[in-house]
Specification:
This protein is about 25% helix and about 25% strand. By secondary structure, the chain is an alpha/beta fold. It folds into 3 domains: about 200 residues, 3-Layer(aba) Sandwich (Rossmann fold); about 110 residues, Glutamyl-tRNA Synthetase, Domain 3 (Glutamyl-tRNA Synthetase, domain 3, Alpha-Beta Complex); about 120 residues, Ribosomal Protein L25, Chain P (Beta Barrel). The strands form 8 sheets. A 7-stranded mixed β-sheet has the order 14-27-28-29-25-26-15. Strands 23-20-21-22-16-19-24 form a 7-stranded mixed β-sheet, with no helix packed on it. The chain has a 4-stranded antiparallel β-sheet with strand order 6-7-8-9. A hairpin with a 2-residue loop joins strand 3 and strand 4. It starts with 5 loop residues before the first helix and ends in a 7-residue tail after the last strand. The structure holds adenosine-5'-triphosphate and magnesium ion. The site of adenosine-5'-triphosphate has 15 residues, from helix 2, strand 10 and helix 9.
Length: about 575
Protein backbone atom coordinates (compact mmCIF):
# COMPACT_ATOMS: atom_id res chain seq x y z
CA UNK A 1 0.00 0.00 0.00
CA UNK A 2 0.98 3.65 -0.43
CA UNK A 3 3.43 5.16 2.03
CA UNK A 4 0.77 7.66 3.13
CA UNK A 5 -1.02 4.78 4.80
CA UNK A 6 -1.44 6.22 8.27
CA UNK A 7 -3.10 3.02 9.50
CA UNK A 8 0.16 1.18 8.99
CA UNK A 9 1.92 3.78 11.08
CA UNK A 10 -0.56 3.19 13.90
CA UNK A 11 -0.06 -0.59 13.75
CA UNK A 12 3.71 -0.20 13.60
CA UNK A 13 3.73 1.96 16.69
CA UNK A 14 1.46 -0.52 18.55
CA UNK A 15 3.77 -3.35 17.56
CA UNK A 16 6.77 -1.34 18.69
CA UNK A 17 5.23 -0.64 22.10
CA UNK A 18 4.15 -4.31 22.34
CA UNK A 19 0.62 -3.15 23.16
CA UNK A 20 -1.07 -6.33 22.01
CA UNK A 21 1.62 -8.86 22.81
CA UNK A 22 0.96 -12.01 24.88
CA UNK A 23 -2.80 -11.55 25.05
CA UNK A 24 -4.79 -14.65 25.85
CA UNK A 25 -8.32 -15.49 24.85
CA UNK A 26 -10.87 -16.88 27.35
CA UNK A 27 -9.52 -20.40 26.72
CA UNK A 28 -5.98 -19.35 27.53
CA UNK A 29 -4.80 -19.44 23.94
CA UNK A 30 -2.39 -16.82 22.73
CA UNK A 31 -3.96 -14.27 20.40
CA UNK A 32 -2.50 -12.79 17.21
CA UNK A 33 -0.84 -9.39 17.66
CA UNK A 34 -3.17 -7.81 15.12
CA UNK A 35 -6.86 -8.64 14.78
CA UNK A 36 -9.07 -6.61 12.47
CA UNK A 37 -12.60 -7.19 11.26
CA UNK A 38 -14.73 -6.38 8.24
CA UNK A 39 -18.28 -5.80 9.54
CA UNK A 40 -20.87 -5.53 6.74
CA UNK A 41 -24.54 -5.45 7.44
CA UNK A 42 -26.13 -8.16 5.25
CA UNK A 43 -28.66 -5.73 3.77
CA UNK A 44 -27.36 -5.67 0.19
CA UNK A 45 -24.56 -6.76 -2.10
CA UNK A 46 -21.05 -5.47 -1.57
CA UNK A 47 -19.78 -2.62 -3.73
CA UNK A 48 -16.42 -1.16 -4.70
CA UNK A 49 -16.38 0.93 -1.50
CA UNK A 50 -16.53 -2.24 0.56
CA UNK A 51 -13.65 -3.59 -1.52
CA UNK A 52 -11.54 -0.74 -0.16
CA UNK A 53 -12.50 -1.69 3.38
CA UNK A 54 -11.78 -5.37 2.63
CA UNK A 55 -8.33 -4.56 1.26
CA UNK A 56 -7.64 -2.48 4.37
CA UNK A 57 -8.92 -4.96 6.96
CA UNK A 58 -7.98 -8.26 5.38
CA UNK A 59 -4.94 -6.73 3.65
CA UNK A 60 -3.38 -5.28 6.81
CA UNK A 61 -4.10 -8.43 8.82
CA UNK A 62 -2.34 -10.49 6.16
CA UNK A 63 0.58 -8.09 5.95
CA UNK A 64 1.18 -8.25 9.72
CA UNK A 65 0.48 -11.99 9.94
CA UNK A 66 -2.60 -11.31 12.03
CA UNK A 67 -6.20 -12.24 11.57
CA UNK A 68 -9.23 -10.55 10.07
CA UNK A 69 -12.76 -11.60 10.97
CA UNK A 70 -15.66 -11.31 8.64
CA UNK A 71 -18.45 -10.24 10.96
CA UNK A 72 -22.01 -9.87 9.80
CA UNK A 73 -23.51 -6.98 11.69
CA UNK A 74 -27.00 -8.41 11.52
CA UNK A 75 -28.75 -6.35 14.19
CA UNK A 76 -31.41 -4.91 11.84
CA UNK A 77 -33.74 -7.81 10.95
CA UNK A 78 -36.01 -5.75 8.65
CA UNK A 79 -33.46 -5.51 5.91
CA UNK A 80 -31.27 -8.58 6.23
CA UNK A 81 -31.28 -11.70 4.06
CA UNK A 82 -29.38 -14.93 3.51
CA UNK A 83 -28.91 -13.99 -0.16
CA UNK A 84 -26.76 -11.04 0.94
CA UNK A 85 -24.68 -13.24 3.24
CA UNK A 86 -23.80 -15.48 0.30
CA UNK A 87 -22.83 -12.57 -1.92
CA UNK A 88 -20.61 -11.09 0.79
CA UNK A 89 -18.77 -14.38 1.37
CA UNK A 90 -18.33 -14.98 -2.37
CA UNK A 91 -17.13 -11.45 -3.00
CA UNK A 92 -14.47 -11.57 -0.30
CA UNK A 93 -13.19 -14.92 -1.54
CA UNK A 94 -13.19 -13.66 -5.11
CA UNK A 95 -11.11 -10.66 -4.05
CA UNK A 96 -8.54 -13.18 -2.91
CA UNK A 97 -8.98 -13.48 0.85
CA UNK A 98 -9.22 -16.59 2.89
CA UNK A 99 -12.08 -16.93 5.32
CA UNK A 100 -10.17 -19.28 7.56
CA UNK A 101 -7.60 -18.68 10.24
CA UNK A 102 -5.47 -21.62 11.33
CA UNK A 103 -7.94 -23.95 9.63
CA UNK A 104 -10.89 -22.49 11.54
CA UNK A 105 -13.61 -20.42 9.89
CA UNK A 106 -13.33 -16.77 10.79
CA UNK A 107 -16.88 -15.83 9.94
CA UNK A 108 -18.90 -14.39 12.81
CA UNK A 109 -22.42 -13.04 13.27
CA UNK A 110 -23.50 -10.28 15.63
CA UNK A 111 -26.68 -12.32 16.12
CA UNK A 112 -24.60 -15.10 17.70
CA UNK A 113 -23.81 -12.63 20.50
CA UNK A 114 -27.40 -11.57 21.22
CA UNK A 115 -27.52 -13.52 24.47
CA UNK A 116 -24.15 -12.17 25.61
CA UNK A 117 -25.10 -8.61 24.72
CA UNK A 118 -28.38 -9.05 26.59
CA UNK A 119 -26.57 -10.21 29.73
CA UNK A 120 -24.02 -7.44 29.45
CA UNK A 121 -26.85 -4.91 29.19
CA UNK A 122 -28.43 -6.23 32.38
CA UNK A 123 -25.13 -5.56 34.13
CA UNK A 124 -24.96 -2.09 32.66
CA UNK A 125 -28.45 -1.35 34.00
CA UNK A 126 -27.44 -2.67 37.44
CA UNK A 127 -24.38 -0.44 37.27
CA UNK A 128 -26.77 2.51 36.75
CA UNK A 129 -25.36 3.17 33.30
CA UNK A 130 -28.52 2.36 31.36
CA UNK A 131 -32.26 2.77 31.87
CA UNK A 132 -35.59 1.97 30.27
CA UNK A 133 -37.21 4.93 28.61
CA UNK A 134 -40.94 5.03 27.90
CA UNK A 135 -40.82 7.99 25.55
CA UNK A 136 -41.48 7.18 21.92
CA UNK A 137 -38.84 7.74 19.26
CA UNK A 138 -40.27 11.13 18.25
CA UNK A 139 -40.12 12.39 21.84
CA UNK A 140 -36.58 11.07 22.19
CA UNK A 141 -35.52 12.86 19.03
CA UNK A 142 -37.20 16.09 20.13
CA UNK A 143 -35.58 16.12 23.57
CA UNK A 144 -32.14 15.22 22.25
CA UNK A 145 -31.45 18.86 21.33
CA UNK A 146 -29.27 20.13 18.53
CA UNK A 147 -25.75 21.39 18.03
CA UNK A 148 -26.75 24.67 19.65
CA UNK A 149 -29.55 23.46 21.90
CA UNK A 150 -28.88 21.27 24.93
CA UNK A 151 -30.83 18.03 25.45
CA UNK A 152 -33.50 17.47 28.09
CA UNK A 153 -33.49 14.57 30.53
CA UNK A 154 -36.13 11.91 30.03
CA UNK A 155 -38.74 11.74 32.83
CA UNK A 156 -37.77 8.04 33.15
CA UNK A 157 -34.06 8.67 33.44
CA UNK A 158 -33.90 8.34 37.20
CA UNK A 159 -36.33 5.49 37.66
CA UNK A 160 -35.12 2.83 40.15
CA UNK A 161 -32.52 0.42 38.81
CA UNK A 162 -34.67 -2.59 39.77
CA UNK A 163 -37.60 -1.21 37.82
CA UNK A 164 -35.47 -0.79 34.68
CA UNK A 165 -34.09 -4.28 35.09
CA UNK A 166 -37.55 -5.82 35.40
CA UNK A 167 -38.86 -3.92 32.42
CA UNK A 168 -35.84 -5.05 30.38
CA UNK A 169 -36.53 -8.69 31.25
CA UNK A 170 -40.18 -8.25 30.31
CA UNK A 171 -39.19 -6.53 27.08
CA UNK A 172 -37.24 -9.60 26.17
CA UNK A 173 -40.21 -11.81 26.96
CA UNK A 174 -42.25 -9.93 24.38
CA UNK A 175 -44.59 -8.15 26.77
CA UNK A 176 -44.42 -4.81 24.94
CA UNK A 177 -45.20 -3.49 21.50
CA UNK A 178 -42.64 -2.22 18.99
CA UNK A 179 -41.36 1.18 19.99
CA UNK A 180 -43.20 1.37 23.31
CA UNK A 181 -40.03 1.05 25.40
CA UNK A 182 -36.32 1.22 24.72
CA UNK A 183 -33.05 1.03 26.62
CA UNK A 184 -30.89 4.11 26.70
CA UNK A 185 -27.32 4.53 27.90
CA UNK A 186 -27.16 6.93 30.83
CA UNK A 187 -24.47 9.40 29.88
CA UNK A 188 -25.13 13.14 29.67
CA UNK A 189 -27.97 15.02 28.00
CA UNK A 190 -25.91 18.23 28.13
CA UNK A 191 -22.90 16.82 26.32
CA UNK A 192 -21.71 18.85 23.33
CA UNK A 193 -21.54 15.61 21.32
CA UNK A 194 -25.14 14.71 20.51
CA UNK A 195 -24.15 11.05 20.23
CA UNK A 196 -23.47 11.02 23.94
CA UNK A 197 -26.92 12.34 24.93
CA UNK A 198 -28.25 9.04 26.23
CA UNK A 199 -28.24 7.08 22.94
CA UNK A 200 -30.74 4.26 22.43
CA UNK A 201 -28.97 0.92 22.85
CA UNK A 202 -31.86 -1.57 22.59
CA UNK A 203 -35.17 -1.45 20.82
CA UNK A 204 -38.22 -3.70 20.48
CA UNK A 205 -38.79 -5.29 17.07
CA UNK A 206 -41.34 -8.08 16.80
CA UNK A 207 -39.98 -9.28 13.52
CA UNK A 208 -38.51 -12.43 11.99
CA UNK A 209 -34.71 -12.48 11.89
CA UNK A 210 -33.20 -14.51 8.99
CA UNK A 211 -30.89 -16.30 11.46
CA UNK A 212 -32.29 -16.22 14.98
CA UNK A 213 -35.83 -16.53 13.60
CA UNK A 214 -38.38 -15.55 16.29
CA UNK A 215 -36.08 -16.07 19.24
CA UNK A 216 -35.59 -12.37 19.93
CA UNK A 217 -37.93 -9.44 19.90
CA UNK A 218 -35.38 -6.94 21.23
CA UNK A 219 -32.30 -5.99 19.24
CA UNK A 220 -29.23 -3.98 20.25
CA UNK A 221 -28.46 -0.94 18.08
CA UNK A 222 -25.47 -1.11 15.77
CA UNK A 223 -23.55 1.63 17.57
CA UNK A 224 -23.88 -0.21 20.87
CA UNK A 225 -23.36 -3.75 19.64
CA UNK A 226 -20.30 -2.83 17.62
CA UNK A 227 -17.79 -2.08 20.42
CA UNK A 228 -19.04 -5.14 22.33
CA UNK A 229 -18.59 -7.40 19.30
CA UNK A 230 -15.12 -5.94 18.76
CA UNK A 231 -14.14 -6.65 22.36
CA UNK A 232 -15.64 -10.17 22.32
CA UNK A 233 -13.50 -10.95 19.27
CA UNK A 234 -10.36 -9.36 20.78
CA UNK A 235 -10.15 -6.89 17.88
CA UNK A 236 -7.07 -4.69 18.16
CA UNK A 237 -7.84 -2.16 15.41
CA UNK A 238 -11.42 -1.33 14.52
CA UNK A 239 -11.15 0.46 11.15
CA UNK A 240 -14.22 2.23 9.89
CA UNK A 241 -15.25 5.08 7.64
CA UNK A 242 -15.17 8.73 8.66
CA UNK A 243 -18.88 9.11 9.36
CA UNK A 244 -18.30 7.03 12.51
CA UNK A 245 -15.79 9.51 13.95
CA UNK A 246 -18.57 11.23 15.95
CA UNK A 247 -19.49 7.86 17.42
CA UNK A 248 -15.97 7.16 18.69
CA UNK A 249 -16.60 8.75 22.12
CA UNK A 250 -19.59 6.45 22.60
CA UNK A 251 -17.59 3.44 21.39
CA UNK A 252 -15.04 4.28 24.07
CA UNK A 253 -17.72 4.96 26.69
CA UNK A 254 -19.18 1.46 26.23
CA UNK A 255 -15.80 -0.24 26.49
CA UNK A 256 -14.64 1.87 29.42
CA UNK A 257 -17.74 0.95 31.44
CA UNK A 258 -17.59 -2.73 30.53
CA UNK A 259 -13.95 -2.67 31.57
CA UNK A 260 -14.97 -1.17 34.93
CA UNK A 261 -17.51 -3.97 35.24
CA UNK A 262 -14.65 -6.43 34.61
CA UNK A 263 -16.43 -7.80 31.55
CA UNK A 264 -13.50 -6.87 29.28
CA UNK A 265 -9.79 -6.59 29.93
CA UNK A 266 -7.27 -4.07 28.67
CA UNK A 267 -5.94 -3.45 26.06
CA UNK A 268 -9.34 -2.60 24.64
CA UNK A 269 -10.06 -2.33 20.91
CA UNK A 270 -9.66 1.12 19.39
CA UNK A 271 -11.52 2.71 16.53
CA UNK A 272 -9.73 4.48 13.66
CA UNK A 273 -11.43 6.15 10.73
CA UNK A 274 -10.50 6.46 7.07
CA UNK A 275 -12.25 8.08 4.11
CA UNK A 276 -14.96 6.35 2.08
CA UNK A 277 -14.36 5.50 -1.52
CA UNK A 278 -16.71 7.34 -3.85
CA UNK A 279 -16.41 6.80 -7.60
CA UNK A 280 -17.54 9.41 -10.11
CA UNK A 281 -20.60 8.70 -12.28
CA UNK A 282 -21.90 5.99 -9.99
CA UNK A 283 -23.34 5.38 -6.53
CA UNK A 284 -21.58 3.60 -3.69
CA UNK A 285 -24.33 3.04 -1.19
CA UNK A 286 -26.32 -0.17 -0.83
CA UNK A 287 -29.48 1.76 -0.10
CA UNK A 288 -29.22 3.76 -3.31
CA UNK A 289 -28.18 0.76 -5.42
CA UNK A 290 -31.24 -1.06 -4.09
CA UNK A 291 -33.41 1.75 -5.45
CA UNK A 292 -31.95 1.38 -8.95
CA UNK A 293 -32.85 -2.30 -8.86
CA UNK A 294 -36.32 -1.69 -7.46
CA UNK A 295 -37.08 0.81 -10.20
CA UNK A 296 -35.87 -1.65 -12.87
CA UNK A 297 -33.23 0.79 -14.04
CA UNK A 298 -30.76 -2.08 -13.94
CA UNK A 299 -31.32 -5.83 -14.20
CA UNK A 300 -30.19 -6.78 -10.68
CA UNK A 301 -27.30 -6.55 -8.23
CA UNK A 302 -24.96 -8.08 -10.81
CA UNK A 303 -25.85 -5.71 -13.64
CA UNK A 304 -22.53 -4.99 -15.41
CA UNK A 305 -23.15 -1.25 -15.07
CA UNK A 306 -23.22 -1.34 -11.28
CA UNK A 307 -20.18 -0.86 -9.04
CA UNK A 308 -21.17 -3.90 -6.97
CA UNK A 309 -18.49 -6.56 -6.69
CA UNK A 310 -20.77 -8.99 -8.53
CA UNK A 311 -21.51 -6.40 -11.22
CA UNK A 312 -17.84 -5.55 -11.67
CA UNK A 313 -17.04 -9.23 -11.81
CA UNK A 314 -19.67 -9.88 -14.47
CA UNK A 315 -18.45 -6.84 -16.39
CA UNK A 316 -15.00 -8.45 -16.42
CA UNK A 317 -13.06 -6.51 -13.81
CA UNK A 318 -10.40 -8.67 -12.18
CA UNK A 319 -9.62 -8.87 -8.44
CA UNK A 320 -6.15 -7.57 -9.28
CA UNK A 321 -7.54 -4.49 -11.05
CA UNK A 322 -9.57 -3.62 -7.95
CA UNK A 323 -6.50 -4.13 -5.79
CA UNK A 324 -4.49 -1.82 -8.07
CA UNK A 325 -7.22 0.83 -7.70
CA UNK A 326 -7.15 0.57 -3.90
CA UNK A 327 -3.38 0.85 -3.87
CA UNK A 328 -3.43 3.85 -6.18
CA UNK A 329 -5.91 5.83 -4.10
CA UNK A 330 -4.20 5.00 -0.82
CA UNK A 331 -5.78 5.53 2.58
CA UNK A 332 -6.57 9.06 3.69
CA UNK A 333 -8.83 11.06 5.92
CA UNK A 334 -10.30 13.25 3.16
CA UNK A 335 -13.57 12.18 1.60
CA UNK A 336 -13.45 12.76 -2.13
CA UNK A 337 -14.62 11.35 -5.44
CA UNK A 338 -12.19 9.13 -7.28
CA UNK A 339 -12.29 9.40 -11.07
CA UNK A 340 -13.86 6.34 -12.66
CA UNK A 341 -10.97 6.46 -15.14
CA UNK A 342 -8.60 5.31 -12.42
CA UNK A 343 -10.55 2.06 -12.14
CA UNK A 344 -10.48 1.65 -15.93
CA UNK A 345 -6.75 2.27 -16.04
CA UNK A 346 -6.21 -0.26 -13.28
CA UNK A 347 -7.85 -2.93 -15.42
CA UNK A 348 -5.78 -1.97 -18.46
CA UNK A 349 -2.67 -2.15 -16.32
CA UNK A 350 -3.59 -5.65 -15.19
CA UNK A 351 -4.55 -7.02 -18.59
CA UNK A 352 -2.30 -5.34 -21.12
CA UNK A 353 0.28 -8.11 -21.21
CA UNK A 354 -1.90 -10.92 -19.98
CA UNK A 355 -4.76 -11.42 -22.41
CA UNK A 356 -4.72 -12.58 -26.05
CA UNK A 357 -5.70 -10.25 -28.85
CA UNK A 358 -8.14 -10.90 -31.62
CA UNK A 359 -9.81 -8.85 -34.30
CA UNK A 360 -13.52 -8.16 -33.96
CA UNK A 361 -15.48 -5.74 -36.11
CA UNK A 362 -18.01 -4.16 -33.79
CA UNK A 363 -20.04 -2.04 -36.22
CA UNK A 364 -19.51 -3.75 -39.57
CA UNK A 365 -19.66 -2.58 -43.15
CA UNK A 366 -18.92 -4.82 -46.13
CA UNK A 367 -15.71 -4.44 -48.13
CA UNK A 368 -15.10 -6.27 -51.42
CA UNK A 369 -11.59 -6.88 -52.71
CA UNK A 370 -12.31 -6.79 -56.41
CA UNK A 371 -9.02 -8.25 -57.62
CA UNK A 372 -9.16 -11.28 -55.31
CA UNK A 373 -10.73 -14.38 -56.84
CA UNK A 374 -14.04 -15.42 -55.38
CA UNK A 375 -12.89 -18.68 -53.82
CA UNK A 376 -9.37 -17.66 -52.92
CA UNK A 377 -8.35 -18.07 -49.29
CA UNK A 378 -5.19 -16.43 -47.99
CA UNK A 379 -3.63 -17.54 -44.71
CA UNK A 380 -2.72 -14.84 -42.23
CA UNK A 381 -0.90 -15.12 -38.95
CA UNK A 382 -0.59 -12.74 -36.00
CA UNK A 383 0.94 -12.77 -32.54
CA UNK A 384 -1.64 -13.23 -29.80
CA UNK A 385 0.45 -11.40 -27.21
CA UNK A 386 2.39 -8.70 -29.07
CA UNK A 387 3.33 -6.83 -25.86
CA UNK A 388 4.34 -9.83 -23.78
CA UNK A 389 8.06 -10.46 -24.22
CA UNK A 390 7.78 -14.15 -23.26
CA UNK A 391 4.62 -15.13 -25.12
CA UNK A 392 5.22 -12.84 -28.10
CA UNK A 393 7.19 -15.39 -30.11
CA UNK A 394 5.31 -18.43 -28.82
CA UNK A 395 1.64 -17.78 -29.27
CA UNK A 396 0.20 -17.12 -32.68
CA UNK A 397 -3.22 -17.22 -34.18
CA UNK A 398 -4.23 -17.98 -37.72
CA UNK A 399 -7.12 -16.58 -39.72
CA UNK A 400 -8.10 -16.20 -43.36
CA UNK A 401 -8.43 -13.40 -45.85
CA UNK A 402 -11.17 -13.73 -48.49
CA UNK A 403 -12.71 -11.55 -51.18
CA UNK A 404 -15.50 -10.24 -48.92
CA UNK A 405 -14.58 -8.91 -45.53
CA UNK A 406 -16.09 -6.79 -42.74
CA UNK A 407 -14.43 -3.60 -41.64
CA UNK A 408 -15.45 -1.05 -39.02
CA UNK A 409 -17.93 1.51 -40.38
CA UNK A 410 -15.97 4.27 -38.74
CA UNK A 411 -12.78 3.25 -40.51
CA UNK A 412 -14.23 4.60 -43.76
CA UNK A 413 -15.06 8.20 -44.53
CA UNK A 414 -16.76 9.63 -47.59
CA UNK A 415 -15.67 13.13 -46.72
CA UNK A 416 -12.37 12.69 -44.92
CA UNK A 417 -11.01 15.58 -42.91
CA UNK A 418 -7.31 16.45 -43.25
CA UNK A 419 -6.35 14.31 -40.30
CA UNK A 420 -8.38 11.25 -41.32
CA UNK A 421 -5.79 8.68 -42.41
CA UNK A 422 -7.98 5.62 -42.62
CA UNK A 423 -9.92 4.39 -45.63
CA UNK A 424 -11.48 6.84 -48.12
CA UNK A 425 -11.93 6.89 -51.88
CA UNK A 426 -8.51 6.68 -53.56
CA UNK A 427 -6.73 6.17 -50.24
CA UNK A 428 -4.64 3.19 -49.11
CA UNK A 429 -4.51 1.43 -45.75
CA UNK A 430 -3.11 -1.84 -44.49
CA UNK A 431 -5.46 -4.61 -43.42
CA UNK A 432 -3.83 -5.60 -40.15
CA UNK A 433 -1.44 -8.57 -40.47
CA UNK A 434 -2.20 -8.72 -44.19
CA UNK A 435 -2.20 -6.69 -47.40
CA UNK A 436 -2.47 -3.09 -48.41
CA UNK A 437 -5.72 -2.14 -50.07
CA UNK A 438 -6.87 0.93 -51.98
CA UNK A 439 -10.46 2.10 -52.12
CA UNK A 440 -11.79 2.37 -55.66
CA UNK A 441 -15.53 2.93 -55.39
CA UNK A 442 -18.56 2.54 -53.15
CA UNK A 443 -22.04 1.07 -53.68
CA UNK A 444 -24.99 2.99 -52.30
CA UNK A 445 -28.70 2.45 -52.02
CA UNK A 446 -31.37 4.96 -53.07
CA UNK A 447 -31.20 6.64 -49.69
CA UNK A 448 -27.51 7.34 -50.05
CA UNK A 449 -26.52 4.66 -47.50
CA UNK A 450 -23.29 2.83 -48.22
CA UNK A 451 -23.89 -0.83 -49.01
CA UNK A 452 -20.32 -1.90 -49.77
CA UNK A 453 -16.86 -0.49 -50.23
CA UNK A 454 -14.77 -1.72 -53.20
CA UNK A 455 -11.01 -2.03 -53.01
CA UNK A 456 -8.09 -3.60 -54.81
CA UNK A 457 -5.26 -5.25 -52.96
CA UNK A 458 -1.57 -5.26 -53.78
CA UNK A 459 -0.37 -8.87 -53.94
CA UNK A 460 3.25 -8.00 -53.03
CA UNK A 461 2.34 -5.84 -50.07
CA UNK A 462 1.85 -8.63 -47.55
CA UNK A 463 3.24 -7.88 -44.11
CA UNK A 464 5.91 -10.57 -44.63
CA UNK A 465 6.84 -9.52 -48.17
CA UNK A 466 10.20 -7.82 -48.76
CA UNK A 467 8.48 -5.28 -50.99
CA UNK A 468 6.06 -4.25 -48.35
CA UNK A 469 7.79 -0.94 -47.73
CA UNK A 470 7.14 0.16 -51.29
CA UNK A 471 3.72 1.19 -50.11
CA UNK A 472 3.41 3.99 -47.65
CA UNK A 473 0.27 3.94 -45.54
CA UNK A 474 -0.59 5.85 -42.42
CA UNK A 475 -3.11 3.43 -41.04
CA UNK A 476 -3.71 -0.22 -40.12
CA UNK A 477 -7.33 -1.25 -39.84
CA UNK A 478 -8.79 -4.42 -38.38
CA UNK A 479 -11.03 -6.67 -40.42
CA UNK A 480 -12.72 -10.07 -40.46
CA UNK A 481 -13.36 -12.44 -43.38
CA UNK A 482 -17.08 -12.48 -44.13
CA UNK A 483 -17.04 -16.17 -44.97
CA UNK A 484 -15.27 -17.25 -41.77
CA UNK A 485 -16.61 -14.67 -39.35
CA UNK A 486 -18.28 -15.64 -36.11
CA UNK A 487 -21.38 -13.68 -35.32
CA UNK A 488 -21.38 -12.36 -31.77
CA UNK A 489 -23.46 -10.00 -29.71
CA UNK A 490 -21.45 -7.27 -28.06
CA UNK A 491 -22.61 -5.01 -25.26
CA UNK A 492 -20.99 -1.65 -24.76
CA UNK A 493 -21.58 0.16 -21.51
CA UNK A 494 -21.51 3.78 -20.51
CA UNK A 495 -21.91 5.50 -17.15
CA UNK A 496 -25.36 5.22 -15.59
CA UNK A 497 -25.10 8.86 -14.58
CA UNK A 498 -23.68 11.66 -16.68
CA UNK A 499 -23.30 13.75 -13.54
CA UNK A 500 -19.87 12.95 -12.08
CA UNK A 501 -21.16 13.31 -8.52
CA UNK A 502 -24.61 11.81 -8.88
CA UNK A 503 -27.46 11.27 -6.51
CA UNK A 504 -30.63 9.23 -6.92
CA UNK A 505 -32.67 12.10 -8.37
CA UNK A 506 -30.29 12.61 -11.27
CA UNK A 507 -31.30 11.64 -14.77
CA UNK A 508 -30.23 8.19 -15.88
CA UNK A 509 -28.10 8.06 -19.02
CA UNK A 510 -30.37 6.48 -21.61
CA UNK A 511 -27.38 5.24 -23.57
CA UNK A 512 -25.79 3.33 -20.72
CA UNK A 513 -26.01 0.13 -22.76
CA UNK A 514 -25.60 -0.40 -26.50
CA UNK A 515 -26.14 -3.82 -28.05
CA UNK A 516 -24.32 -4.63 -31.30
CA UNK A 517 -24.24 -7.40 -33.85
CA UNK A 518 -20.57 -7.89 -34.48
CA UNK A 519 -18.16 -10.25 -36.24
CA UNK A 520 -15.11 -11.91 -34.79
CA UNK A 521 -12.14 -13.70 -36.31
CA UNK A 522 -12.34 -17.47 -36.04
CA UNK A 523 -9.86 -17.71 -33.13
CA UNK A 524 -12.62 -16.89 -30.69
CA UNK A 525 -14.28 -20.23 -31.33
CA UNK A 526 -11.11 -22.19 -30.69
CA UNK A 527 -10.83 -20.73 -27.19
CA UNK A 528 -14.39 -21.88 -26.44
CA UNK A 529 -15.01 -18.15 -25.81
CA UNK A 530 -14.16 -18.46 -22.14
CA UNK A 531 -11.45 -15.88 -21.80
CA UNK A 532 -10.85 -12.19 -21.54
CA UNK A 533 -9.65 -10.76 -24.86
CA UNK A 534 -8.32 -7.55 -26.16
CA UNK A 535 -10.35 -6.82 -29.29
CA UNK A 536 -7.70 -5.01 -31.30
CA UNK A 537 -8.08 -1.22 -31.46
CA UNK A 538 -11.25 -1.50 -29.34
CA UNK A 539 -10.77 -2.60 -25.77
CA UNK A 540 -11.07 -5.46 -23.31
CA UNK A 541 -13.99 -7.85 -23.55
CA UNK A 542 -15.30 -10.88 -21.70
CA UNK A 543 -18.19 -13.28 -22.32
CA UNK A 544 -21.29 -12.43 -20.32
CA UNK A 545 -21.71 -14.98 -17.56
CA UNK A 546 -25.51 -14.88 -17.69
CA UNK A 547 -26.51 -14.48 -21.34
CA UNK A 548 -23.63 -16.10 -23.22
CA UNK A 549 -23.96 -19.52 -24.89
CA UNK A 550 -21.70 -21.24 -27.43
CA UNK A 551 -24.49 -20.94 -30.01
CA UNK A 552 -25.18 -17.28 -29.24
CA UNK A 553 -22.00 -15.74 -27.91
CA UNK A 554 -22.47 -12.53 -25.90
CA UNK A 555 -19.56 -10.32 -24.93
CA UNK A 556 -19.32 -7.37 -22.54
CA UNK A 557 -16.89 -4.58 -23.06
CA UNK A 558 -15.05 -4.14 -19.80
CA UNK A 559 -13.26 -0.95 -20.84
CA UNK A 560 -12.25 0.62 -24.13
CA UNK A 561 -8.56 1.02 -24.90
CA UNK A 562 -7.10 4.24 -23.58
CA UNK A 563 -6.58 5.67 -27.05
CA UNK A 564 -9.73 4.19 -28.56
CA UNK A 565 -10.82 6.30 -31.54
CA UNK A 566 -14.20 4.66 -31.99
CA UNK A 567 -17.29 6.23 -30.51
P1 LIG B 1 -23.80 1.48 2.56
O1 LIG B 1 -23.98 2.94 2.83
O2 LIG B 1 -23.41 1.16 1.17
O3 LIG B 1 -24.94 0.64 3.06
P2 LIG B 1 -22.46 0.87 4.92
O4 LIG B 1 -21.38 1.69 5.47
O5 LIG B 1 -23.79 0.96 5.57
O6 LIG B 1 -22.55 1.10 3.38
P3 LIG B 1 -21.72 -1.65 5.93
O7 LIG B 1 -22.28 -2.92 5.48
O8 LIG B 1 -22.08 -1.14 7.25
O9 LIG B 1 -22.08 -0.62 4.80
O10 LIG B 1 -20.15 -1.59 5.71
C1 LIG B 1 -19.21 -2.53 6.10
C2 LIG B 1 -17.89 -1.85 6.17
O11 LIG B 1 -17.53 -1.31 4.91
C3 LIG B 1 -17.93 -0.69 7.15
O12 LIG B 1 -16.78 -0.74 7.97
C4 LIG B 1 -17.94 0.52 6.28
O13 LIG B 1 -17.29 1.59 6.91
C5 LIG B 1 -17.18 0.04 5.04
N1 LIG B 1 -17.62 0.77 3.86
C6 LIG B 1 -18.87 0.90 3.41
N2 LIG B 1 -18.90 1.70 2.33
C7 LIG B 1 -17.63 2.10 2.09
C8 LIG B 1 -17.01 2.95 1.12
N3 LIG B 1 -17.70 3.56 0.18
N4 LIG B 1 -15.67 3.12 1.19
C9 LIG B 1 -14.95 2.49 2.13
N5 LIG B 1 -15.47 1.69 3.08
C10 LIG B 1 -16.80 1.49 3.06
MG1 LIG C 1 -24.79 0.47 7.08
Amino acid sequence: MKSNNFLKKIINSNLFSKKFINRLDNKGKILPKIITRFPPEPNGYLHIGHAKSIFINFGLAKLYKGKCNLRFDDTNPEKEKKEYILDIINSIKWLGFNLKYKKKKNIFYASDYFKKIYNITKKLILFNKAYIDEQNIKEIQKTRGTLIKKGINSPWRNRPIEESLNLFKKMRKGKYKNGSLCVRAKIDMLNSNINLRDPVIYRIRHIYHYKTKNKWCIYPTYIYAHPIEDALEYITHSFCTLEFADQRPFYNWVLKNLYKLKIFKKPLPKQYEFSRLNLTHTLTSKRKLKQLIKQNIVSGWDDPRLPTISGLRRRGYTPKSIKILCEKIGITKNNSFIEYKILENSLREDLEHKVPRIMVVLKPIKLIIDNLEKDKIINCIAPSYPKNHILYKKKYRKFLLTKNIWIEKEDFSENPSKDFFRLSLGNKVRLKYSYIIKCTKIDKDNNNNILAIHCIYYPNSNINNLNKNKYKVKSNIHWVSKKFAIKIEVRLFNHLFKNPKPNLNDKINKNSIEILKSYSEITLKKTKFKKIFQFERQGYFIYDKINHTIENPVFNRIVPLKNNIFK
